[in-house]
Amino acid sequence: MFVQDRDAPKSPKQSQHSQIRTLPTFRTNRFSESKSLDFSTWFSENLYKIVTVLVLIGTVAALFFLRNVGDTAALLCFENKAQALEKIQFPQVNWNSNERISDKSSPYANFRTERWIVVSVSNYPTDSLRKLVKMKGWQVLAIGNSKTPSDWSLKGAIFLSLEEQAKLGFRIVDYLPYDSYVRKTVGYLFAIQHGAKKIFDADDRGEVIDDDLGKHFDVELIGESARQEAILQYSHENPNRTVVNPYIHFGQRSVWPRGLPLENVGELWHEEFYTEVYGGKQFIQQGISNGLPDVDSVFYFTRKSGLEAFDIRFDERAPKVALPQGMMVPLNSFNTIYHSSAFWALMLPVSISTMASDVLRGYWGQRLLWEIGGYTVVYPPTVHRYDRIEAYPFSEEKDLHVNVGRLTKFLVSWRSGKHRLFEKILELSFAMAEEGFWTEKDVKFTAAWLQDLLAVGYQQPRLMSLELDRPRASIGHGDRKEFVPRKLPSVHLGVEETGTVTSEIGNLIRWRKNFGNVVLIMFCSGSVERTALEWRLLYGRIFKTVIILSSQKNIDLAVEEGQLDHLYKHLPKIFDQYSSADGFLVLQDDTILNYWNLLEADKNKLWITNKVSESWVTVPTKDNGWFQKQADMVKKVVSSMPVHFQVNYKGAVTTDQSLTICSSEVFYIPRHFTSDFIDLVNLVGDLDIHQKIAIPMFFMSMDSAQNFDSVFDTMIYKQEQPSANSSTIYSAKVAAVHPWNVTSEPEFIKLIRVMAEGDPLLMELA
Description:
Blueprint: H1 39-45, H2 47-69, H3 72-84, E1 115-121, H4 127-133, E2 139-144, E3 158-160, H5 162-166, H6 184-193, E4 198-202, E5 206-208, H7 213-216, E6 230-234, H8 246-249, E7 274-278, E8 284-291, H9 297-302, E9 321-322, E10 335-339, H10 354-369, E11 376-385, H11 398-413, H12 421-434, H13 440-455, H14 503-515, E12 518-524, H15 528-539, E13 545-550, E14 559-561, H16 571-577, E15 583-588, E16 592-593, E17 616-620, H17 625-639, H18 643-652, E18 658-662, E19 666-670, H19 674-684, H20 691-702, E20 716-717, E21 736-738, H21 745-755
Parallel strand pairs: 1-2, 1-4, 2-3, 6-9, 8-11, 12-13, 12-15, 13-14, 20-21
Antiparallel strand pairs: 4-10, 5-11, 6-7, 8-10, 9-11, 15-19, 16-21, 17-18
């Protein structure tokens, strides 16, 4: 069988007898009397041994010969005889005789809630897990294993150690390995026992985007709060298509999920058309993960660029998409919601490799979901997972790459004549063991799981007629729904692939490596509803993240509130939020950044437009009321500055009768200057110093102008705004261009077309 054998788990408490070795008995006469070395005598005495050895050698040689000459039929004859000695027994279960299992051992015996998040923990609580605990309306249940610290604790979470799990009385505990995340199966039962109606299957490295599962998933399927809507669905026109890559639908054509058969990796084209299905039975809901999506070791090792962490992004505006009967998608155990009608599908197999367990569970569960009229839906990005750059061996996925293609075809063709769902479930588990997808251990485990479900009060859903067995109506023109996925830039290709990677992608990798830990802070003066996503799409490929501020906050678009006149006062908070960043680049939306021309700039220096005469000017303060008020406040701040700030500032200012102004559309602050910047902001305090006055004052105080990097010295800067954006003022050979306004998607498309001169891959976005 093509499975990874796993030793049965040993109890941490061994019996006394198992720890006592039986001492060997020594005879006083250790050496027997020497015998004659005559060959004929030796041969006659050992003839039966010689014959046995020769037969064994002949058998092994025959096996090797049969394998090498390709006589498959003869070889299978040997293997089938060997398997016959290990006949799998079908478990006998009395479904009507199940004693109720109540929680009598934990402190949460009387606790009930409907929404649960189940995670496996091997280390102390992560920041991501702390955020999950704070999510309103959801209860986090952390399941420990043999690697979990004994003093593990997190306020707001329920933690079940190995000892506490053993006291719950579940049958499945006897089959679970001590050191694996598959012990989450105990957690699923515990949650169901304590009133669960929805279970979010998660891990401790993913952060829910906007901290709201309800914003992304269909948490409610019935009632007033349910979304009664039609859902886009893959077409069932090709009956031989059993599995799809959902990442294509969400904008990443060259990325594939763990569990996708490797023979399907090369299918890069998008759907010709979709159909629709009415919502309400999406009992399994799979979310897409930004950052480090669910990818297999083949992708991870062949597309990795050194030690740089993955940060792959998907199209958050793409519609969710359903899978029709006969078609499946890889599912995982760290970003999936199960509704109560599909709780039976949560069982994680125990006899296969750990990295294959949740994927095989997903395919197994999807096939059985059709029996109750349910279906799976894949949703746009729901969590952000951080790449810890921890590689796992290919062997951990052995059961995936060997079996998964054959498994999907087997599942689609499998039929059962049983009349109750749990009977069908056990029958399918048995059939999968016979086919070698897992072992008899998982057949027994399935029986224990189903009995435990009944024992905690779970009601098995009723069966529905299988659509696969009914003639399918042809898809008419009116039933066809079109959706063309975006072609999002893929920044994951490794530089080792020099034979196939184009120079454009090579450039993108260099830019990302250079600015991948720089935060871009952007202020949008126009309508963020029309531009925020476009700016993130353009610059998010290059920088660590894109923080967008505007005069009005927009939660849905992750736009923070800020005032341009005092933008500098909002920066300290962002500096603290991204304390590990190399630096912070501040940009206004009327200035275009040609990032490919910033590679030579020194990221340890300050960047500003002090040599751009139209941007950096000195004005007299006499006879000008506003300038005079600003100058007075500047003097007040300077007088309270520490000596190093005062020396720098007064060395740069020639007279106290003038005031330096910088338009401040673009500037850069390295990490090691952020503490100085924060100190200066604190010195300003409540004073109403304008952004254009404060920024040059800060820069002249932090360092000497001769130490500023000259990257922006040659930028194109026009004071007067043209009536319409014109390519005549744009140049791809400078670091930045001002002004250029983008207020709509057509204007954004026009922008990236001219920017494509410096970054040809931008044409993929047009």
